[in-house]
Model the fold of this input.
Amino acid sequence: MNLSHRVSHVYKVVLVAMVLAAVFGMQCNGALAAQKHRIAWSHYTGWEPWAYAADSGILKKWADKYGIEIELVLVNDYVESINLYTGGQFDGCVMTNMDALTIPAVGGIDSTAVIVGDFSDGNDGIVVRNGTSVKDLKGRRVMLVELSVSHYLMARALEQSGLSERDVTTVNTSDADIAGLFLASKDPKAAVITWNPLLMQVRNAKGVNLVFDSSKIPGEIMDLMVVRTSAPDALKKALTGAWYETMAIMSGHSKTAKDAVQFMAKTAGGTEAEFRAQLRTTRMFYQAAEAVAFTKGPDVKKTMDYVRTFCFTHGLFGQGATSKDHVGVSFPDGSILGDPKNVKLRFEATYMEMAAGNAL
Amino acid sequence: MPTFLGLHAQPSRPLQVMLALLPFIALVCVYLGVSEMRYRNNPADKVVPTLGKMAEGVNQVAFTEDKRTGKVLLWDDTLSSLKRLGTGIGCAAVLALLAGLNMGLFPGVRNLSLAFITFVSIIPPLAILPILFIVFGVEETAKVVLIFIGTFPMITRGVYLAARKIPTEQIFKALTLGASQFAVAYRIVLPQIMPCLIDSTRLSLGAAWLFLIASEAIASTDGLGYRIYLVRRYLAMDIIIPYVLWITLLGFLFDRLLQAWISKRYSWYLVTKE
Done:
């Protein structure tokens, strides 16, 4: 082999090494560029205000106040947004209390719920064709996203009606297709469990009844803003400040309030009337003080106990979990549910209290 | 500098094996490195589970009865998925053999169906998946139909091309010797295009798996794809990765099995291919 061949081989090796270095380098870069905080969100009635906060400049205003940069990123697939947060791509993400427990907390990511934005008060529901009560679910095939809050809702509904999960067959159905499949289904015994805005589509079909909804288990499905516990105070304060400013605007009666709601309805992909109807089944905590009272109240603990029992019995804690005490959940009064040495989900009222006292 | 990169390289047998293994070893090393790093940062990390955690995951799904259903998940899922896959691609292969053969031999059949089959074969099956579910319901039928629609036109076209390649002299000779049209089609041509059918089916298996998993992701109560999409709900990569490896292994085995069938029954075909 002559010299020029050898040189070209050297180039090849160097080239390969550079590509590899670039691939690994990118990962490290992601970890280094931490001054900019990325927050993920996905579409849901109770989270649309985030889009407005970002679009109207409120979020930037609060980020500037605390000397940081916040980028709000829409991740169109809800589970994927939480997975990305858990995998380390985001500093914060919106999610329900149940998913916060089973995905990041069980995955070892110490997370803090800085804002309890609302709870579902009818936004999640069970719809059956040719039936009038939860008891009619017996023996049916029920379409739902398994292991989601819909599954939890079903478990609670069955429990209250004296049935068990063995009485139904669950069909895991992707949320993207669930409404279409239910509406097109010719099965006279079709049943479906879903959330808004899909719930609104299916419950208005002919010959169907809404037999159970989350207003019968109020406060149990909470919608949270969850951030890494290790994230700086500035981020937690900025997010909380921006959220309650947005809440104040949308709950007002000014023209800005109407514009804000219209903007949210549009990003949610519906009409203003539809969005307002969904807001009625969402118990929004427009006042920070309300959210504080709820978060510090006894119901949150009771709910989290229900939720973790459900998660454990459904295998959501994964391998290595031997009891529902696998992960610890802490509350504002300092009490802990589960393993005190493995607290990974923290309900925190500090920042909401600051918002309530205009101290942000 | 390694000479195996050269145009005229003739790597020795051990070097060939080593080269073949190299990318696998590299992949495993990168994986282990990343999982070790993430594990040290966070012992409960779920994104890149360590080998130990995956072993636990495999133990859980492949050797332990599920608490809720009392079934061993991996075998149960495999059985359900293979039933769907087998029915779908089995029907596709049998019908494709008949369709391709007749299209290749009989001009009337060809005029009637070639354009149509070509048209259907270009429709991306996944694009019409929601329609299939609405027409055939959320149970088994839609899943099998998807696999069928996804593979049938392709296999048919493969068989058709093989049937067209049969020399006309051969057919005329058979007819002259007194064979009926039926005998020409099924006694003379069919055995000759069998290996082509098997080959086409083999190549369609990859697509068939894709359709199987896609349909199980939309609405299902069991199956390999179902499980992957279900445990994705809580990021259980310790189950997802073994499932993916298992699917890969199954796919590899089927491929090998069909290849072995060809070399056992139709060794002449392998000779003509070379």
In short: Strands of chain B lie at 219-220. Chain B touches chain A through 36 residues (CB under 8 Å). The mean pLDDT of chain B is 91.
